[in-house]
Description:
Layout: E1 2-7, H1 13-24, E2 29-34, H2 36-46, E3 57-60, E4 77-83, H3 85-92, H4 99-109, E5 113-118, H5 125-137, E6 140-141, H6 155-170
Parallel strand pairs: 1-2, 1-4, 2-3, 4-5, 5-6
Helix pairs in contact: 1-6, 3-5
Amino acid sequence: MRIVIGITGASGAIYAQRLLHFLASTEHEVHVIISNRGKQVIGLELGRNLEIPKKFGLYSDNTMDAPFVSGSSRFDAMVIIPCSMGTVGRIAHGISNSTITRSADVFLKERRKLILVIRETPLHLIHLRNLAALTEAGALILPACPSFYGLPSSIEELVDSVNARVLDHLGIENSLSVRWREHF
């Protein structure tokens, strides 16, 4: 698969870090975009820069010099993880003012898989309407809501329970998390 990973300034940099770590162990082609606010949050939450595997493409969030910003390039899926509500609003209203939002716009118009791992609580009516509009347009809204039935013993296991769902929706086999009723 050819996959684009967008990382925005929402809290939850560890979700992106763990997803990239898993994808590095696969043969999938991965391209990464990190917003400026995403870089700030990564620094605050992880205490360092995100480790991007050398085999991944890395793009600025203010460039149009990336293959996936055009529908003529063939990519399979895009995941925005974590996805801020500001990014949700811009995508929902067709505001393509960054590489991340332009890419998401392309994935929607080309009917390609777009997964938004949102990280916000509580949600107000505008958030909900934007999320509904994106769902109607074909995006999958996957809130970063970890599962607890596997009795996680670390933050990484909690995070991986969300990333397992992301990978499931990408169609990528994984055993990152305990599946319901399969651990008894």
